[in-house]
């Protein structure tokens, strides 16, 4: 059996509306957060879990980590039911929520780690070895004596990751771990997750809106929308279905040249050149380049694929999300 086994997972929430004038009670509506979601994840996989806000990603993570109990379906993580025998189960998982911290705010992170060592009953020798390994990989050596409240957001996220991995879990759930991080911190975090997955075969499920994280880390991606699984496969195959636009930037030798293009291509003046956005299905790239060459002597030409965030936005729109 797969390391993570999910079958027909369902979860409903009941939301009370604002009381209407003159009514004694508030009306209650049902929100289907998850509807018949099924998937399998093998040990050692690094999987991206994407979808728009409200799709059900965080609900899935909370069920898989044992925080929530589903209304229906079957879930096994490492042959364990997450919401049963939770004390035993959480010894085998790590969880990082991008906007919630498990470390103590006013004490040095080393003191928090020492308390986590006692909570997880980690032997002293194993704790020292793992702490040294993680602090070196996450570049935390100079921050161990620093209280969490005195750290930057990027430093806090690195410290959180270290705390979640001290007991060397088999499974790591990451819910928006790079939210608010600068480019340098994101790159460092991605490098660490690749290292952890490669060195320890830690199974990682990553939910994020940062598609660069998914592209850099996840060979496999699942798309969730309206509580249902809509896609499960490689990111490249997914994007190929929606990679319909290209951008060309062109500059001519002189200011007298203007290309003659069909209405399907959008052309904008860009400094001393032009920016052209076109769809290869309507205007083949070879035909476009031929038209550009006929317009005049080209000094510089760059063809760029569509930005990955635009691709995902187009995909969400086409799926009705």
Short description:
33% of the residues lie in helices and 28% in strands. It is built from ten helices and 13 strands.
How are the SSEs placed, and which strands pair?
Blueprint: E1 4-16, E2 28-41, E3 46-50, H1 57-64, E4 72-77, H2 86-89, E5 93-97, H3 109-119, H4 124-137, H5 153-165, E6 171-175, H6 183-200, E7 203-207, H7 211-217, E8 220-225, E9 228-233, H8 235-242, E10 246-252, E11 266-270, E12 273-278, H9 285-295, E13 298-305, H10 308-319
Parallel strand pairs: 3-7, 3-8, 5-6, 6-7
Antiparallel strand pairs: 1-2, 1-4, 8-9, 10-12, 10-13, 11-12
Shape: globular
Going by CATH, the homologous superfamily of the largest domain would be P-loop containing nucleotide triphosphate hydrolases
| Widest β-sheet, arrangement of strands | 5-6-7-3-8-9
- Straight-line N-to-C gap: 32 Å
Tally of helical runs: 10
Largest sheet: 6 strands, mixed
- Any guess at the CATH architecture of the largest domain? 3-Layer(aba) Sandwich
In the CATH scheme, the class of the largest domain would be Alpha Beta
* Arithmetic mean of pLDDT: 86
Characterize the quaternary organization of these chains.
Answer: single chain
**Unreliably modeled segments:** none
Q: Using only CA atoms, what is the Rg?
A: 25 Å
Structural class of the secondary structure composition? alpha/beta
The CATH topology of the largest domain comes to Rossmann fold
Helix content percent band: 25-40%
Question: What sequence of helices (H) and strands (E) makes up the elements?
Answer: EEEHEHEHHHEHEHEEHEEEHEH
Question: Would you count the extended β strands for me?
Answer: 13
- How much of the sequence lies in strands comes to 25-35%
